[in-house]
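Weekly structure sync - notes
Attendees: PM, LS, DV (DV joined late)
Agenda: review two folding runs queued last week.

Item 1: First target. Sequence and structure tokens pasted below for the record.
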Amino acid sequence: MVELLDAVFHALSDGTRRAMVATLADGERSVSELAAPHPISLAAASKHVTVLERAGLLSRRTEGRRRMCRLEPASLAAATAHLRHYERFWNDRLDALESFVTGSEEDP
């Protein structure tokens, strides 16, 4: 699980790859279509797609001469679950701080 999360967070650390994932949320796209909005070569786009694929965020299939990409949400769901744990932790901590600062802390 840790290796999957490392790969997902690494893949999402790049703005171009995050934009590609957002584009794929609207449906399947070719590598060329994913590259089009970015000032990168097709080879660079293919490398970004490979990083996303290794992280399990997308899958590729060949359709004639085109490489079609599809979002695979399972890896993203694992990362979201991991972050939710920390969201709850920080919300609890901030609620406790707010209670302390405002003096409304209740006796246990």
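Item 2: Second target, run right after the first with the same settings.
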Amino acid sequence: MPKQSKKKISAAPSWLGLTDDRLSFVFLPDRAETVKKIFELAIGGMGSYAIANYLDEQRVPTFTQSLQWDHTTIDYMLRNRATYGEYQPKSFAAGHKKGIPSGAPISDYYPAVIDKATFDAAQAARQQNLARRGRKGNNLASIFGGLCTCAYCGSEVIFHSISNVQVLVCERVLNGACSRSAWTYKDFEITVLAFMAHPVLLDKVNEGQRSDLLGLVVEIEGLSADQARRYVRRVNISVLLKKIVASIIVHSAGRLTLPRHSSAQIRKDMGGRFLEIQLRQGPSYRCISIG
């Protein structure tokens, strides 16, 4: 662990402290676990507003005197390369409160709370999240963000509202480039979660995924009984789904014989639809719509 003759606690990231001799950094265990959770949620597809809301719902203490988490703190933490140990020396010239980079970054300066691969995965997820939903969003309308694709054109299947009805639909349908029907979100979620909670699936997954699947089943079973923690459970379900499921390929009901105009209303809930669930470590399965 790197040492220096003089170190100030204010210069260390907020999840680190100093040893009594003030020569070495040490983890603040609870805060280090919170940082890991923030990266896990980001990789799971949650934006900074939603992560802040989740931490508040879970009553996770902030790293300051504030009683609530702020999305700017989450954003800064997710961009902070100190999370994997890198330190960027800075000089503080007049008029520059944040400091100016001075020299090359120093690797392994801090003890790493995550690895570089986790950091990079979070950056990629954040970019995808911004592209899909914009910067602000403190709810979790869909637990399937980034998982679903259209079986016919390969585009992403996204969350959308049609006349106050929430649906999942191929993004190219919205500009007339794909003519498949939408799927009411509530029906879709019920279909997928019923499959994921089926006890037979436990016998199909490998040992490494079994604990994640068991945790997923507990969260799914608690959704209807635990209204007070419904938001938190949906967040946990979203994160666990992305650990277990590689992709969900959405099929509409067979072929449409006539091309559809781009301004035509998107039809919903056609019979005979099905989806394919591809596990990250295992086979794919077909699920028939219950609607």
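Discussion on item 2: The two ends are 58 Å apart (CA to CA).
Action: LS to circulate a short write-up before next sync.
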